[in-house]
Amino acid sequence: MKERTQADLPRLNLRPFFVAAVGLIGGIFLCYRIMASAFRIADAIVFFLFFALLLPPFAWRRALLVLAVFSLAAGLGAGLFSLACGAFSAGAPGGEYTVTGTVERVAVSDGYAEVTLRGLTLDGEKADGKLTATLPGESVRPGDVVTFFADVSRNKGPTEGGSLSDLAANVRYAASPAAYTVVGVSSDLFLCANAALYNVLYGTMERDAAGVAYALLTGNSSNMDGGLLRETRTGGIAHVFAVSGLHIGILYGAAVFLCKPFLRRWSFLPALLLAGCYSALCAFTVSSVRAVVMCGVAGAARFAGRKYDLLSSLSFAAVLTLLAAPAQLFSVSFQLSYGAVAGLALFSGSFARGLRWLHFPAWLAQALASSIAVQTFTLPLMLTAFGYLSVWGTLLNLFVIPALPVLFLPLIVCTFLSALLPAAAPVLLALPEGLLSALLFLFSAADFSAVLAGFALGAGTVVWFAAMLLLSEKVRLGAAARGVAAAALACSFALAVCAENVVFAGCRIDVSGRAGGDCALVRADGYAVLVLDGDASLSLCEDLLSRTYGGELDAVFVAAADEARAVNVAAFLDAPVYTFGETETGLRDTPVYAVRRTELGGMTFTYERAGVLVMTAEGVSVQFCFEGGTQFAEFALQEGETRLKYLVKDGIIRSL
């Protein structure tokens, strides 16, 4: 039989579940872009490239199989996403209702509890979806059945200007009642167990340590100290507070180890059952479900004596998740969880070989390769989700990941024993609390705030993922072809990033809004000016700047009828502040100027009245007005949108 040469081999191994997963992702993503009237040719480049790599060497059977699986999955994904959008928009309209629901998640802060309710009834009628509510007091717990009367607002779907995150979480309603009543406790054992963990941790530990422990065990980090949570995010290790493959893998591995002497080949079954129950305790988060499915595939493969393929296992988990909840594709947890494992599958092997070639010890090469592979693949996802990239992630994960089992296993064992034996909780939790206190001390003493920020990738994201696919070890390319592809993609990436972030001509406007507040960054002729309204928070302004601009501001203009609050936000942005009326800052010694007309470079800013600012550039007048829900006369930031980009050039405002 003739031996096949490298040229005869397919560029990309045909893994049916991998093809199906990419098809589902393509169908869901492109369906959303089309429904939102935002489709561009660049959106489909990665999927066309993937399809092209699967075909060579050409064979009718292979081509038809790839086309059939990919097309069927894409059509199914588009159809399911369309149905999910329709179901989200259906149901009871907003209005005043008597609401009854079961508390699924709770975050307590400043005398209030932010909760997510499921199993809703509105005026006694069952309602699909979930509701977020701000309840007075801090006594509510997961599993409590609460009732209240309130004005319930209806969240819009993404095609109506609503949030994709609400669709992914199936959160259809929101309310802020003045009072509520606990009328019972859910019969859901996992919610009751979650509440028992919450009570024993906060009843025994110091509050900050309890918040970290609860986040480690349940993935709910909303009770953690805000400063510590920011430090872990900028340090690139926030994934330890989201129940992920690490946590499930540690628990699954420990259970297999304990059961193997008794059950031999069957030891994976009780371990898988334990992992599934733990995922239920954590409300079936995306990352925990992925990890449970992959553990099940790994155990079944080992039981059957088959080789375990990480990419196929990941693809199988993605297919199950997206078939059940197609909108999860747009959740940050889905993207980062699946992206991290995809990076491991695609690059860890080649990175490890390269480090060993540089004479790194095998254990260090593998650890570094895994961390670098994850950071490399998730780079655009992190930048999109948080607006910055950690410079510490690769280094810190070398220490955090090996240390996690030492912290997690004693914590989970001691906490569950404490819930069963409350009198022994102070003794049982002494060791975990000591370890957590040491962690808190480390992060309070260290400064991990150094990040890469102030830029966006734009179309560079498409180029980046095209490069990830084309240059991964899973694609068979010769050295010359790989070198040419790498050079071409590097040039394309650099051009895309420059086009996104550098204003070569005209006047660039980036608009951002969230939770009622709005701000706009205006750049022209080397000047950068921020315009904000009276509801814009400092975090909103800093988020826009971290995502779009890494330099210093030349001025901040306040466009608010009541300027006092906006001025005190603007005072922290380290730039001169311009207002319509005389206003002083009560917090910082920042220059504040009351003006009617000011010129900065090629831009002229004129106040028509308090709250109405007109900018003239390139022969075009743009009015910034935030009153009465009218945001910008010349262009609008619709409800649910968080950022828009415009270019004022040659007398025309172009949407980018």
Topology of helices and strands:
Blueprint: H1 16-35, H2 45-54, H3 60-89, E1 95-109, E2 112-122, E3 125-127, E4 130-136, E5 144-154, H4 164-169, E6 171-175, E7 181-185, H5 189-204, H6 207-218, H7 226-234, H8 245-263, H9 268-281, H10 286-304, H11 310-324, H12 332-357, H13 362-386, E8 388-390, H14 393-420, H15 425-428, H16 430-445, E9 451-453, H17 460-471, H18 479-501, E10 507-514, E11 517-524, E12 527-532, H19 538-548, E13 555-558, H20 563-570, E14 577-579, E15 592-594, E16 597-600, E17 603-609, E18 612-617, E19 620-625, E20 643-649, E21 652-655
Parallel strand pairs: 4-6, 12-13, 13-14, 14-15
Antiparallel strand pairs: 1-2, 1-5, 2-3, 2-4, 5-6, 5-7, 8-9, 10-11, 10-20, 11-12, 16-17, 17-18, 18-19, 20-21
What does this structure look like?
The protein has 656 residues and is of the alpha+beta class. Among the domains are: 84 residues; 93 residues, OB fold (Dihydrolipoamide Acetyltransferase, E2P); 58 residues, no CATH class; 42 residues, no CATH class; 149 residues, no CATH class. The protein contains 20 helices and 21 strands. The chain has an 8-stranded mixed β-sheet with strand order 15-14-13-12-11-10-20-21, covered by helices on one side. Strand 20 and strand 21 form a beta hairpin. About 2% of the residues have low confidence.
